[in-house]
Amino acid sequence: MTLVLKSNYKQLSAGIKCYFCNGTHTCRECPIEANMAPLLKKKVGNMMEYYIANNFKCPECKEMKLRVIGNHTPSLDIICEHCENKFEVKSKCLSSYKLPNDITLPHGSYIDYTIRINEGLNLIVLIYGVDRIKKEINVREVIYADNWNLTNKDLIDVSQRKDSNLSTIYIKNKKFLKKLDLDMSKLKITFQEDFDNFKNSYIESNY
User: Fold this and answer.
1) Which of 15, 44, 66, 12 minimizes the C-alpha distance to 189?
2) Residue 184 belongs to what domain range?
3) Positive or negative, the Cα torsion across 201, 204, 205, 207?
4) Which residue of 74, 123, 132, 174 could cross-link 145, Cys pair, CB 3.0 to 4.6 Å?
5) In a domain, 8, yes or no
6) Which positions ≥6 away from 78 have C-beta within 8 Å?
7) Global confidence as pTM
8) What is the CA angle 159-114-156, rounded to 5?
9) Domain total for the chain?
10) Cα distance between residue 185 and residue 172, in whole Å
11) Tens digits of per-residue pLDDT, 47-97?
12) Secondary structure of residue 84 in the 3-state scheme
């Protein structure tokens, strides 16, 4: 116990502060963040679905008619109410200054995915960065793969993971996919209030 107190005192004296829980450790060492990370990732994924639906026209018919289904349907997040095209939305957090051309995305059921592909599924990928201190998401790029792209193994490979029904989507070179135009006034998404409510609820239930 003495060693822990001394360690915390040294970190406090050095000005080290966790911007996640306000503790005297770095964010990378925060046990609360480590436990909450999978839940936060899922919550951000849900936020990105609504961000796409509220800020983008349908990539196929160009109408502002995208709607989030919101019922956890496998491999299907958004539909267009005008042309009835179906879309899966994946989000990827990348902090590197230069975005890579190849992108790997963990995905759900391989069987459900193959069924959706045969039904004409399309894919929207939102790449973002996070300001941990300001609690802001910075949208960096949104790319679109239509059904033809998804079935072209020279562009995208979707494989079933070993000993699992889960799958992995591997985009070999995003340069060959379409970039969706971004509204420069809507590149930042502030989630401070949602984050605080979610964090406080989690801490009350688990600590």
Assistant:
1) 44
2) 37-206
3) positive
4) 123
5) no
6) 49, 52, 53, 66, 67, 68, 69, 86, 87, 88, 89, 124
7) 0.81
8) 45
9) 1
10) 30
11) 899 999 999 999 999 999 999 998 888 899 999 999 999 999 999 999 888
12) coil
